[in-house]
Amino acid sequence: MSFINRKYKDSVFTDLFGSDRDGKKNFLELYNALSGSDYKLEEVTLERKVIEQSLYKTFNNDVSWEIDGKLIVLVEHQSTINENMPFRCLEYVTRIYEGIVPLNKRYAEKVYKIPNPDFYVVYVGKKELPLEQELRLSDAFYKKDESSLELVVKVKNCTNPEILPVSKNCDILKEYCRFVEIVERTYSRRFPRRSFKKAIEQAVSEGILTDYLDRKSREVINMLCAKYDYKMDIAVKQEEAFQDGKEAGIKIGKEAGISLGTQQKAIEDAKSFYENGVPLEIIAKSLNMPVEQIKEIVAQI
C-alpha cells in the first residue's frame, strides 16, 4: 500500500530520486552505489513510501522506497550533519510501518511481516567530514549498555564527486552534486530566481542533469526558491531563538549562580532537545535543572 500526502514542498533531491518520472530508476542507481547491491529495474518491485512531513515541517528532503522486502530511507543534508538523525529516522520509520501494518493485524497472534529498514544520509555540504560514518541511536542513551533498541544511519559524504564513498559508479549522483555546487556558487539572495535560472543554464551547458532540467526547469526553480526560503526562515528563527534564549539563560543563571559559559551550554542543549521533540521533564532531568527553568528557556524559541 502506498500512502502519499503532498502537503509539503519537494526538494530537487526528493524529486530527482523520488517523485520524477525517472525517480525510480535514479533511486535504484543511487541505492546500488551506496549499498553495493546490483538490483536491476526490470527485476525488482519498487514502491514509493511518502508520509506527511512532521519531521521537516513543510519542506521535504528525504526519499523512501520499499524494494523487495527492504525499506530504504535516504535523507539529504546540504549544511551540517544532524546527530539526532537516528532518532528522527526512528520516528519516521515508525510512521511508515504504521501505514504498512493494518490495525487489525497488530494484535493478532501470528506475526505480520514488515520490510527490513536501511537508513542513509547523503551529505553534500561544505564541512569536512569522513567519507563514511555511522550514527547510532544508542549514542543518545543516558548510558551505553546492551539495550535492545538500536538504529544505525549510514552517512555518506558525497561532497566531492571525484571521491564519492560509493562502491559503484553513480553518474546521476555525481551530476546532482555538481548541480548543487553550481547553485550554491551562483546563488544571489537579492535575485534568487534569476540566479537559479543562471545555474540551470550553466548546468545544461555542462551536460549536467540535461534531460531533467530541460523538462522541469520551472519546477526546479520553484523548488529551489522554496528550499532557500525555508533555509532563510530557519536561520532567522535560530538567530532569534539564540538571542532570546541567551537573555533568558543569563537571567536564570544569575538567579542560580551559574557561570555564563555553563548557562549558554545548558541553553543550547535545552533548545536542541526541545526542537527534536524531547519532553520537558526529560530535558530537565538530563540537564539537572528544574522544569520551570526549561520552560522559561523554550518559551523564547
List the helices and strands and how they pair.
Elements: E1 9-10, H1 12-19, H2 23-35, E2 46-48, E3 59-60, E4 62-67, E5 70-77, H3 85-100, E6 116-123, E7 132-136, E8 152-157, H4 171-186, H5 192-205, H6 210-256, H7 260-275, H8 280-287, H9 291-298
Parallel strand pairs: 1-3, 5-6, 6-8
Antiparallel strand pairs: 2-4, 4-5, 7-8
Task: Specify Rg, calculated over alpha carbons.
Answer: 21 Å
Give me the secondary-structure category: alpha/beta
> Hey, roughly how much beta strand do the residues contain?
5-15%
What ranges have pLDDT less than 50 throughout 5 or more consecutive residues?
Answer: 1-7, 54-58
Please give the order of strands in the largest beta sheet: 2-4-5-6-8-7
Structure, explained:
The chain has helices spanning 12-19, 23-35, 85-100, 171-186, 192-205, 210-256, 260-275, 280-287, 291-298; strands spanning 9-10, 46-48, 59-60, 62-67, 70-77, 116-123, 132-136, 152-157. With 301 residues, the chain is an alpha/beta fold. 49% of the residues lie in helices and 13% in strands. The longest helix is centred in the C-terminal third of the chain and has 47 residues, at 210-256. A six-stranded mixed beta sheet has the order 2-4-5-6-8-7, with helices on both faces. It has a two-stranded parallel ribbon with strand order 1-3. Residues 1-7 and 54-58 have low confidence and may be disordered.
